[in-house]
Each structure stands twice: as structure tokens, then as C-alpha cells.
Amino acid sequence: MVEAGRKNVSMDEFSTGSAREYRQQLTDLQQELERQRERNRDLERQLQHTAHTEIITYVEENPGATTPQIIQHIADTVPGRVVGHLDVLEEDTLMLDDERYYLCDSDEQRASHNG
Questions:
Q1: What is the pTM of this model?
Q2: Which of 12, 47, 83, 98 has the most beta carbons within 10 angstroms of its beta carbon?
Q3: Residue 85, in any domain of the structure
Q4: Is 41 a domain residue?
Q5: Bias category Basic and acidic residues: which stretches (predicted)?
Q6: What does the buried/exposed string (b/e) look like for 21-51 if buried means 16 or more CB atoms within 10 Å of the residue's CB?
Q7: Is 63 domain-assigned?
Q8: Per-residue pLDDT reduced to its tens digit, 34-87
Q9: Total domain count for the chain?
């Protein structure tokens, strides 16, 4: 028996099955965390590639462009790119409800925003 504070806690109360279930839940959560981290890395790579491509295309079309000109071009083209990103994200990450965006972490959240 283990004494925890003022209460005596019997380790027999925790079945082997419960410990196994907790380990499985922990493993599942760790795997989900790693999947989400990999997805974030992929999205960051895509974003970086998109920005690089945009700058390269602009300089190709405007040889001798200055840094302020490139910055202005990127700033001017952001709205068009954001719309494309939002369209992609609406498929599985964001939900549009009454012209407002919400994260879609689960089916329950989607239902609560739609209901």
C-alpha cells in the first residue's frame, strides 16, 4: 500500500487493464501529435516554397527590381493568395459559418457551429 498525503491508496485499485488502456491512449496521442507536427512542417515548406516562387517570378518579369518593389509586389498579391489558402483549408481545417472562420478540430465542433 502506498501512502499519498493523508489518504491510503491501494495500488490494487488500478487494474492491469486500466494501465494498458492508459498506455494505449498515450501512444495514440503521441502518434497524433507527431502527425500534426509533420503536417505543420509540410505546410510551412509549402508556404516557404510559394513565397520563394512568387519572388523569383517577380524578379524574372522585372529584372533589376529593388527590395522595396519586391516587398510591395508581395504585399499587393497577398489577398489573392490568401483566398486560395482559405479554399484549401476549408476542406479539413477551417469551417466558414456566417462569413466567420472557425477551426474544425472535430465533428462535434462542426456540429456545434452548424447547429
A1: 0.43
A2: 47
A3: yes
A4: no
A5: 1-10
A6: eeeeeeeeeeeeeeeeeeeeeeeeeeeeeee
A7: no
A8: 999 988 888 887 777 777 888 999 999 999 999 999 999 988 888 877 887 788
A9: 1
Provide the domain limits for residue 88.
78-115
Beta strands in the chain (DSSP E): 2-4, 7-9, 94-97, 100-103
Q: Which residue has the cell 524574372?
A: 60
Residue 102 — φ and ψ, nearest 5°? -135, 150
The contacts of residue 29 (CB under 8 Å, 6+ apart) are: none
| Residue 86 · residue 101 · CB < 8 Å | yes
Residues found in the chain: 115
Cell numbers found for residue 110: 462542426
